[in-house]
Amino acid sequence: MSTTFAITPEPELKNLGHRHYNGKGIIHSIESCGAVDGPGLRYVLFLQGCLMRCLYCHNRDTWDLHTEQAQELDVATVMKQVMTYRHYLRATGGGVTATGGEPLLQYEFVRDWFTACREHDIHTCLDSNGYALHYDLILDDLLDHTNLVMLDLKQIDPEIHKVLVGIPNTKTLKFARYLTERNQPTRVRYVVVPGYTDDERSAHLLGEFIGDMDNVEMVELLPYHELGAHKWALCGDEYKLKGVHPPPKETILKIKEILESYGKNIIY
Ligand code: SF4
Which mutation among 129, 237, 239 tests ligand 1's pocket best, with the greatest number of atoms within 8 A of CB? Predict the structure, then answer.
């Protein structure tokens, strides 16, 4: 299938960069019993702020770092909740997950939270798009306290990535390689979006990129869905993928087969 891509302008990045850390996380929402954000059942914090602009974003309302709806919570407050669920989470092979938005934009808070969790032997999962702004001791400390990274690799082709995500994939690919250097247990997530990531070439590019990454224990294929489209309207934005529907099962199976040929375990 041939597709013509229109380049969207770079998103407005100002006011979304690094902020002074005051010991609190800016939280969009909390799910005390999430089933899709890592192994087992999980306590999930959705952090505010994201610098990507995925056309299919189902959490459009997490983009801005500061919004009236967000709440600021410190680690002690969050841990009080986590501790009430810990036996239950552990019994299911679960734990906690930091997601968003993009949790790396608040990496000091996530580092502090994960450190507290590991002190109680609670499994930690970082669900990230790989947009690390700083490679420093804080990032290493965070990753030292992270049991599993779930890394979104949205598209390896740089031009299609810019169209689909609004910004280049340079930072994400750098982070992916960094995880491999650290031998950090990582699960790659790949959203299959008709017209953008569902073609065989894109699947081969992904397979070639992760093929020799021994730290990537599996790839999770996520069929595109329209469930978050209404949030765009609530934020006053036009949802540009109107009319794009979830991919057929055969497409997912084809991508699965291609990625398996690069020696990876695929879940779907
Ligand atoms: S990285 Fe996630 S939160 Fe950010 S725009 Fe993309 S889908 Fe939305």
Answer: 129
